């Protein structure tokens, strides 16, 4: 227990020291170029606040959903070591079927089309 407290103290102290060093060490001499919205020197041609594409948002959400599916199914090989591996298989198949039906629905509705 004493070792854990020492390790926690060292990590907190090191984090605080590094945070203070990173805050006070850099020289802050802002000039006109650094204060401009674009550091490249070009004047902006249009609005920086363009509307966000809903199609891109939908594809990003689908990617995250299927990435989460992989994280949920990752412990599946260890699931067959349980007393009743049939339940593990049925739950995994339920997740896969549900996600496949959702993907088919999005595809049929045209939600995955980039061009309209």
Note the topology:
Blueprint: H1 2-24, H2 32-35, H3 54-73, H4 76-79, H5 85-109
Helix pairs in contact: 3-5
Keywords: Electron transport, Membrane, Mitochondrion, NAD, Respiratory chain, Translocase, Transmembrane, Transmembrane helix, Transport, Ubiquinone
EC number: 7.1.1.2
Transmembrane segments: 6-25, 56-76, 88-108
The CATH class of the domain at 52-109 turns out to be: Mainly Alpha
CATH superfamily of the domain at 52-109: NADH:ubiquinone/plastoquinone oxidoreductase, chain 3
Structural class: mainly alpha
* Second CATH tier, the architecture of the domain at 52-109: Up-down Bundle
- Distance separating the two termini: 62 Å
CATH topology of the domain at 52-109: Methane Monooxygenase Hydroxylase, Chain G, domain 1
Gyration radius from CA atoms, angstroms = 26 Å
Strand runs, count: 0
Number of helices: 5
Catalytic activity: a ubiquinone + NADH + 5 H(+)(in) = a ubiquinol + NAD(+) + 4 H(+)(out)
Organism: Pethia ticto
Family: Belongs to the complex I subunit 3 family.
Pfam families: Oxidored_q4 (PF00507)
């Amino acid at each position: 227990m004493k070792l854990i407290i020492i390790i926690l103290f060292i990590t907190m102290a090191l984090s605080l020291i590094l945070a203070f060093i990173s805050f006070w060490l850099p020289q802050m001499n802002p000039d006109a170029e650094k204060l401009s919205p674009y550091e490249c020197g070009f004047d902006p041609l249009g609005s920086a606040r363009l509307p966000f594409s809903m199609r891109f948002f939908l594809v990003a959400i689908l990617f995250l959903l299927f990435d989460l599916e992989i994280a949920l199914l990752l412990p599946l090989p260890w699931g067959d070591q349980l007393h009743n591996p049939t339940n593990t298989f049925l739950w995994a198949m339920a997740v896969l079927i549900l996600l496949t039906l959702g993907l088919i629905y999005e595809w049929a509705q045209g939600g995955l089309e980039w061009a309209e």
